[in-house]
Amino acid sequence: MDESVVQARIPQALVSVLGVESKPTLKAEAFTEAFLKNGLQRTPKCDLKSMLSHKAVVLDFTRPKKEKKNCKKAKGLNAHQKRAMKVFEIKPEHQRYELFLPLHQLWRQYIVDLCGGLKPTSNPNVVQQKLLKADFHGAVITVVRSKCPSYVGTTGILVQEFKHVFKIITKQDKIKVIPKRNSVFAIEINGFISHIYGNKFEHRASERSAKKFKVRGTIDL
Amino acid sequence: MAQNVKDKEAYQRLNYLYQAAHCVLTQNPENVELARFYCFTQKTIARRLVLRQDPSVKRTLCKKCCSLLIPGVTATTRQRSKNRKCRFTVMRCTSCGQGKGLLNNPDYCLWVDRPEAQLQHQMQSGPSTKSQPEDTKHDGSQSSKSGTAKSSPST
User: Which of A21, A90, A204 sits opposite B33 (nearest CB)?
Assistant: First the structure.
């Protein structure tokens, strides 16, 4: 088959029928690359020779262990495996600011949805209450006050939230890790600015939705 | 009723996280880690608040490493048959190798699909917001998935 035929765009009439849209070239290329990388067979890491040289050969008879029972249950990874796989670490080549802009747009929509329009007339107390349980991944976040002066003024899109730390991607395509303790963050949505006191926020992102916040003490920074 | 109102925000959050994972993957198909993080958060929230999620959502998450399974991008889908009679759709996560087998049976109807009608009957008598976020979640997955290959889990 001719190569141009393969690469031709899907005609408009078929787009609605198939439910498939042809992507711009750059995006399509990224997808094919990822597909090839995942799809191709990996060469086995350890060949026979290295296996034999490392292990002693046992000539005694051993009953084969029953491992079926364990295999049946799909268990999650334990902490050791997670650390080895680097499950949540973002590779440096993916740290580009413009890749996260659509995420921010999505987040904006979500917050407006959550707060029911977010008009200037809406009660700030209610909005604050909702934001307490909301998700902040994808928000543009600014450090307003901090005990460490070098953190102040850092702005970026929040990428990951951990128990004690925010991971932020700045406009200079850098991931910054900012501890929650002893700093105050500001979030801006449609002119509504909300401050987050990091001292009170030292929970995991998932735990926050279940946790009850209590009024306790004051924060001076 | 009060329970439902409270849960609505949590469901919205789950919905957002699911969409965010899709959004990250459409931007950069190799950024599996971030999508996995969002799905992991989604899973833990659902676990903490004991929220039931739709099977169509749960079937696109890897059980082992919590990554989002999109055929061709982060997962492979194959048709496997056992003794020539029953065929399975096997979805395998490419990062951890965990497989997910679904029986191809056109007559099989999910439990959720069956009482769905019942739930709508209930809604006529007393309005419940519980089913609404799940619907929106479904839409979000569909819209962002349309660019990639589509799979038919139970046909």
Answer: A90
